Amino acid sequence: MNSYKTLVLTLFCFSLTANASQLDFPKTGYSIDSLEAEPSQSISNALHMFLPPENGFSGNVNVMLQPYSGSLEEYKALSEAQFKQLNLEMILSFVSQEQLTFEYKGTMQGKMLHWYAKAYKKGDIIYLVTATDAQINWEKNKGQLSATVDSFTLK
Fold it and tell me: What homologous superfamily does CATH list for 42-150?
């Protein structure tokens, strides 16, 4: 009987490990294995999640991996210069506890949008986690979108 219990416990533990990389979406009723690859020398979009469309736009959160050898402070300066070039209005920008936080808004591709983003640096990779929504939807969705961005952790 003890060997049976040991076998069941071993199989149970293995099944927990085997499903550790599965994404679970209980509200919409499904789960799916994650699709993951090693970071490369080019920018890659590692994850993109969408809310249902509202007012012609789907609020979303994405995780991008960007090769970058500079510091977070240098990345902040570069990003702020790019935002200025694109005529985007900076709402918030600061570096703290090894992360960079941005909030900005502006028109892109004819739509008034709002962004909230955090950047993390590990080695020569920037992990950029960004929430985007139509400005008209931002107040309604910002709690969920911001909380998703804030939930990101590096391992």
Answer: Mog1/PsbP, alpha/beta/alpha sandwich (3.40.1000.10)
